[in-house]
């Protein structure tokens, strides 16, 4: 199937919102002979739109079950409270890595639907984590300014 | 349990889909860079502006 055909999914015309959690394709292997793209949760940090085409793109932070709480709790958003997980649409404790953020076109080449779901949208970040994100980014900005 | 029944249960909010559990590996710079390289030719075709959210400091 051609990529242009794949991108004609109904959800491709409806962008996610900031702080939505969506299913993103992530390369489990970077070796060309093992492309191994798998869906994993991604946190939408901002939504962009093309001036000419009207196409959408998202800045995304990827999720991992590798929490690294001791090393990363002051750097990344970690969702681990059992009460919060279903509210976010997640089924396992997840860390969203804010070190590696990338802008991706909102298209079926980069986003996909979990089995039985009509769109890549899984859920949305709760207010408490949005506040934590703002705090983390402020700390990161402050640390960067001190270094320069 | 048949695959069809599993899919129906997932769609109805029963069992979570298998993708909900399978993201153990760490997020690596190499993997994210590989995605950025794939996205670049598509994003270069247009000028994108932020319509929801701002680009914060990192």
Could you characterize the architecture of this molecule?
With 148 residues, chain A is of the alpha+beta class. Chain A has one domain: SH3 type barrels (Roll), CATH 2.30.30. Chain A contains 4 helices and 6 strands, in the order H-E-E-E-H-E-H-E-E-H. Chain A has a 6-stranded antiparallel β-sheet with strand order 4-5-3-2-1-6. In chain A, 36% of the residues are buried. The mean pLDDT of chain A is 89. Helices cover 41% and strands 9% of the residues of chain B. Chain B has one domain. Chain B is mainly alpha-helical. The longest helix of chain B is centred in the middle third of the chain and has 15 residues, at 29-43. Chain B has helices at 3-11, 29-43; one strand at residues 48-52. The interface between A and B is large, with 59 and 43 residues.
Topology record:
The complex is a heterodimer of chains A (148) and B (58).
Chain A: H1 3-6, E1 20-27, E2 37-50, E3 56-64, H2 69-72, E4 77-79, H3 85-88, E5 94-105, E6 121-124, H4 127-147
Antiparallel strand pairs in A: 1-2, 1-6, 2-3, 3-5, 4-5
Chain B: H1 3-11, H2 29-43, E1 48-52
């Amino acid at each position: 199937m051609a990529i242009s055909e794949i991108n004609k999914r109904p959800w491709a015309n409806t962008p996610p919102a900031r702080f939505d959690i969506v299913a993103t394709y992530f390369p489990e292997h970077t070796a060309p002979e093992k492309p191994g793209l798998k869906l994993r949760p991604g946190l939408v940090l901002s939504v962009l739109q093309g001036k000419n085409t009207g196409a959408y793109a998202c800045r995304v932070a990827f999720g991992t079950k590798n929490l690294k709480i001791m090393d990363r709790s002051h750097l990344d958003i970690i969702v681990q409270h059992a009460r919060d997980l279903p509210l976010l649409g997640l089924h396992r404790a997840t860390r969203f890595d804010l070190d590696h953020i990338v802008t991706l076109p909102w298209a079926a080449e980069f986003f996909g639907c979990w089995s039985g779901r009509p769109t890549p949208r899984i859920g949305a970040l709760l207010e408490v984590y949005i506040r934590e994100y703002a705090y983390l980014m402020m700390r990161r900005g402050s640390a960067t300014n001190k270094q320069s | 349990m048949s695959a069809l029944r599993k899919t129906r249960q997932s769609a109805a909010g029963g069992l979570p889909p298998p993708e909900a559990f399978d993201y153990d590996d760490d997020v690596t710079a190499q993997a994210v860079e590989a995605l950025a390289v794939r996205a670049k030719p598509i994003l270069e075709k247009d000028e994108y502006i932020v319509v929801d959210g701002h680009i914060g400091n990192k």
